[in-house]
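Deviations from the work plan: none for this task. Representative record:
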Amino acid sequence: VNSKNQPASIRMARATIIALLACLLLVPALGGCDWEDWFAESEQEQAKDTAQEWTEANGLNPVNDDGSVNPDGVAKVAKRVITGSTGNAEVDAALNSDDALTRIVEADKMEEMGWKERDLTLFDDAVKLRPEDWKYRISRAASTMDIYVAPDMDKVDADLQVAEKLLGPDKQERIQYAQQGIRQLEAVKNRLAKTYGTGERGDLFTHSRPCRTVFSRLAHFYSVLADQTGDKSSRDMAAQYTSDLSQCPP
Amino acid sequence: MLCKQCGAQSSDGATYCGQCGAAMAPPGDSGEASATQCKMCGAQTPVGAAHCGQCGAAMASPVSGGEAATACCGTCGAPSRDGVAYCGECGAALALPGPVAEALPTVPPPVGPGAAGRPGHGATARRRRGCLRTGCLVAGIPVLLILLFVGWVVAVQTHLLEKVGLRTPPEQRLLGARPNAAAAEALKAELLSAGFSDTGLEVAVLPVKGKAYNLAVVVMDASQGFQRSGTGDLILDCLQRLATGDAAAQYAIGRVAAHFYDTTGRKTLSLTAATQDIEAFAAGRMSRTDLLRAVEGDVDWQTLMGGMP
């Protein structure tokens, strides 16, 4: 049929439809979209498919394909529900490892607020959330010395000793540990001994316990850092702080 | 003989009234003790006589007064009439149907001769013993066991034991050490290069207590905007990248775990596998089905059965 013989309105409608189709095809192409993305399952659907495949592979489906009850699947699921465990503590820990991450995030928030508000109870909360994490022990020890004029040095020393015991063998971890200890105890030392070097003796040098703790622990942290990095300046600092111990009152 | 308290007829020689439990006058206190009344003519007839001396009518038996004795006292064994609440012989409460038994008094026993109190002494204890005999415990033990079982399941599912400090969760016992930040960054970079979005994605590497290797953890939270461009199996692809990438070998990743949260923030799936199993799958030494069997997991059954939102 010759299109010239058609009414103008039909020709207009046809042109509009063609233009709309062209736009539909051009939009994803110009937008850099991948055709696969358009037809791909959502992340949720993929997760659900994997979950179904996993339950089928392990015979965990309580209901068969025909709708009948699968006694073996029901028994396996019931066992998990009743015991709340896979029978392997390491696997149980891995399956709940997202909770561990949540606790880390919470403890970090507490620690940050503790420094900001100079509130020791927030550090206590952080330690409660992650009792086997040295990070919050070092922070609590340093903040105790930073906040209080007469800190409970038994508590400070205990935290620093526990932190050292909790330290693992991993090189990166040991470097992190040393760097945190150096950063936080240097700040405490600078505040307590700010007049040191001008002929006057700061608070740090008038009390034996805080003085010995700060210098001995700084020597320890620099020593750990030097061991991991081989850095000579860290080794020198460790030696310097060891000799500074003699500056402390008996 | 007649009860002075309520006027009910009791068997001769009864110490307590069978109707109200009041103490009966001892034999010899009145002339009624040696004689009984004929029902036909009302004449007094000696106790034990088979027929009335006046009209010759048959006398009722001494025990029931014409009615059959159908219940025996559990304490003394004496027969009693139907419907009486207390044994006419010893005053003990008789086993009665529920509502009647419940209405029995539990007052202390009459003190002193002639006291008109009801013989409630030991009645409650006897009812309890009766309960044991009649199977209250037999019915109670299964109910108790069911309640304990339900309580245990609820405690396990709500982590009640952990909350009250009776048990330390395995993730706290084994994953308490400081996470390795450098390893986490390296692993995250590998996932980002594979099309995983930075938003809603958390990666951590946690040392496992008592083990020489680390656990790599990935949390994909769609409610926080997690997305991935490209196709393929999201979760298994994620586990494979964590276990077989360069960072896995560098940071001694021995196990990987992936968690997926849907757009409502609900955890729908957690899977974990040993690195060596995933390596075997990646190298073609293990089929996909065998890998899935080697994988341990937790699924949200409600989501799985009802469909994800």
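Residues 32-39 of chain A have pLDDT under 50 and may be disordered.
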